[in-house]
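ok trying again, last paste got cut off:
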Amino acid sequence: MTQLLTIKSNQPQKTVNLTDTAVEKVRELILAEEEAGLALRMAVRPGGCSGFSYEMFFDSEIDSADIVEEFDDVRVVVDPQSAEMVRGATLDYKDSLMGAGFAIDNPNVTRSCGCGNSFS
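nice, full thing came through this time. structure:
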């Protein structure tokens, strides 16, 4: 008789994921800031035509309640309220003929505006 072993992962889902391209670009931008200890802060704020908008900036102050994800030497920080709205999202960096910039693929979005800057 063969016995099957089921392994359940107790690893929690990351709050946010970064593509390799996003990690490289964030690293490049942090190095250009020439300030030690910076992390990329991702947040969700009320506003925009669909209800909420993303906010991203470099931050050196990390609160004990913040969630910190590490991608090699790049840290991403999310406050607890924003974490619920971005859990499972992927941050990517795209550079094409049509322009360059960060793009967030968020599975929690039910509706977004035409400009792509706000969501609900």
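cool. Residues 38 and 61 are 8 Å apart (CA to CA). The chain has one domain: 16-119.
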